[in-house]
Amino acid sequence: MTNQSTKTVLMVIAAWVALIALPSLGHADKITDFIVFASAYGLLAMGLNLLIGYTGLISFGHAMFFASGAYGFGALMQSGAFAVPVAFLLSIGITSAIALLVGAICVRLSEIYFAFLTLAFQMFFHSILLSWVEVTGGDNGLLGGIPTPVFFGVDLSNHTHLYVFCVTVTLISILIMHRIVNSPFGYTLRMIRDNERRAIYLGVNVFAIKLTCFVLSAVFSSVGGIIMALFVSGAYPDFAFWTTSGEAIFMVMLGGVTHFLGPLLGAVILTGLNDVVITYTDHYGLFLGSIILIFALVLRKGVLDFVQPHRKRSKTKTSAEGASHAET
Amino acid sequence: MSVRNKISRRRFLATSAMASVPLAAPGILKAQAADTIKVGMPTILSGVVSILGESSVAGAKLVFDEFNAQGGLDGREIELITRDSRAKPEEAAKTVRDLVNGEGCNIIIDAEASSGSFAVQEVIRGLGALCLHTVSEATPLSADPKLHVPTAFRSARQGIHDAIGGGAYAAEIAKEKGLKRWVTCSPDYAYGRTTTAEFMEYAQYFNGDIEVIGEAWPKLFQPDFTEVITRILQWKPDALYSALWGGDLVSFIDQANLYALFGQMETFSVNLGDYPVLKAVEQLPEGLRSGNRYNKSVPNTPENNAFYDAYVANSGSLPTNWSWENATGATFIVEALKEVGTDDPNQLAEAIKGRTIQSPFGVDGTLTMRAEDNTLVGYAVGYGVTTPQEPFITDFHTSSWDQILELEAEWKKRQGFA
Question: What ipTM does this complex have?
């Protein structure tokens, strides 16, 4: 393991310890609820950013995979035939199969055509959720709650266990994504984003790389969906609606498209704003819209996109080795 | 340091501050009075159905204000904390968790539409708070034993009750007038499809001559009904049933008036009898058969008229079906609080289970929270005939609760719910 990898793993462990300790500061349930909710959307946004930020493919349909994770996990658990870890892995497998099929068609296209095709698939998926009432519950979603039998001593009906489980899953997912984007595969994604023709001339199988990224991106988004399903003990058609994809894109843009943790920060900010706005006013759209407008007019880019150059300039002054490269 | 750097740093600091405030604010800014009884209400306060939330809040507030004015519970007043879920089930679920865990609410009035209510039900199962579902009419919420939560109740209409009462009424009119060929026109989502199927099932149960010759399923919030209207006219039915509601129903009636549709067939509309709808229709046709939602003349008692007057004076708006349902939920809460003297959810649930309250909305002046499935019975079910002026609904035919309960029990057996 390289020094960089060791450092990353240690940082994730430190984050895990900090997050587990955080509720002891007070308002435990409120804080844990917020973190679990933000984690679910954070993984959706981070998964999406593998496509947007690292590959240059803007998907308008990624909520489809968020929903497939939630519905797959929920339906498998309701069947009573699977333990939590098995249902978890199977629902990821189901999402991968869907993503492989959808991605094989979509990644042949680029720019607006790719975006619209992913949107079309998402609406198709949303229609299936509404129509296939026997399996999905139609408009009402998966009813009756999601049973979570104890596994390895973990009882997800206990809120503390659920919190620790979600935090652990989220951090492991983030660690895996970090490894992916810093691997040769990750650098190939950037090359395709920056100059696809050049990548082809260098012998890169662009279709295969894009498709792999599409599936990986869907997998991490589906893990977000599973966390959400566990949190609300259900799955709803709204998870697959285009507005959820829109929110995920906004989280990516808000947090910063060029920084690895940007989408996670975007999810935290948007979820936090949402909590504040609905606490103090019924005019949700007006206030949130105004706040977002201020963000957009002042920053004109994501929060971490903005912070990163400052950090680089600071490092340039203090280190003879020069600034570290932007993580993208 | 260059000017550019100075500006950038200032911008950076401002941005950081903006980003951090929302995250810290929920925990530090909101100071609540410690000695109040907190009742949380997730509902829909924005978007095209915001009237749902507004009239729900107004209905509950009317009861709580009166309770507080009378001194509360040994001086402890009820504080109603509302949250906008924006009609998103996951937001409703999160909001309920926040109200219970963050705000300290032991009591939740769930004024969500059906999908949100099912989400709330599952959260309540885990949290153990007292919950009154005050809007959802979806029958399985309380009828399906798998969904049962001991501390959750429904103080709203239930689809199957209206279907039985409405079906019996429709069958009787059909026999009188020889209405055999029926068509339906309902919104294309779970509520519209379920309500329509149940209504027609019972209409045919009571009158075997009824035949459904066409079904139209306009999309929810569809602005243009021309295609639907022309299709209905082409079917040349004797009667039309519709579960359209709110703005969709207003648009449908206004547009159907242009085609003189209502002169060509008998129309049965389960959701027409709400003041905002009746007043929003440009030219309300005479003689439409309207299901009861809320009307101050149904039942026509001094108590119901007094509720109407107090509601209008308090909120400045006209009461809706959601208003009486939330007022009823709030009344059960207040009555239970008075009995047990604490806001402990389990004790309150015990007090509400099987409880009968005096109510202006009951057909016999009372409403009961049925113990076997924690749902409301005894409210006014039935149909009347529209008239363009106040009271808008006349010749109201009240359905028999003996008949409703008997057929509901059979229906539950068929569904495997009993």
Answer: 0.76
